Amino acid sequence: MRATKIILYLSIFGIVITIAGYDMVTYEFTEQFTAADIVYVKLLIPLILISVVLSTLIIRYGYQKGRLLRSRIIDNFKATGLFIISTCGFGLLTFALFQGAILTTNRVFGEQKDIIIIGTITKFSEIHNRKNVHYYIEVKDSQIDRVISLRVKDVYKVGTEFKLHMKIGCLDLLYKK
């Protein structure tokens, strides 16, 4: 019975990670920062509620199975620490799940339109990791009237014209395969 529960929990965790990361890994470009903003603005309260409920269930499960210590002082510190750590962990997992679900919904459901981004590069930045350098540009597009942040492979100069063929999904988020 215990092995079945572990397999079930690992399967659920794998499904969550797959949903959360699929669009970010398989597509050349997705507006993941815009999707993160949607989660912050519109889904923050459900995210917090889900995290608190799951953390409470974890603590109750620990008490029922006798896995937590029974000393009053140590018990309170341990329960508080476990609650805070598990709430943060479940919050991050739920955030990634919501962000991945938004990107997948944008790509799969509703009307998908082809669009050509034509605009002027307003900002160029590079971020150095241990082994890699990532380049980011911001383009002011006149067709959809917004600034678009893109991760690119080459170095660009601010003020030059930029053109890229993309798709726009049902939630008005851009993506490119």
Sum this structure up briefly.
With 177 residues, the protein is of the alpha+beta class. The chain is built from four helices and six strands.
- H/E element string? HEHHHEEEEE
Structural class: alpha+beta
Q: Specify the oligomeric state.
A: single chain
Number of separate strands = 6
Biggest sheet layout: 6 strands, antiparallel
Mean pLDDT: 80
Strand content: 25-35%
Radius of gyration: 21 Å
Tell me the number of helical segments per DSSP (H or I, 4 or more residues long): 4
Detail the poorly predicted runs: none
Distance N terminus to C terminus? 43 Å
Strand order within the widest beta sheet: 1-6-5-2-3-4
Helix content: 40-55%
Characterize the overall form. elongated
Overview of this structure, please?
It contains 4 helices and 6 strands, in the order H-E-H-H-H-E-E-E-E-E. The longest helix is centred in the middle third of the chain and has 37 residues. The chain is elongated and about 65 Å long. The chain has 177 residues and is of the alpha+beta class.
Main attributes of the structure:
177 residues, single chain, 6-stranded antiparallel sheet, 25% strand
Write the topology of this structure.
Elements lengths: L1 H25 L2 E2 L1 H11 L1 H21 L7 H37 L4 E16 L4 E9 L4 E7 L8 E8 L5 E3 L1
Antiparallel strand pairs: 1-6, 2-3, 2-5, 3-4, 5-6
Helix pairs in contact: 1-4, 2-4, 3-4
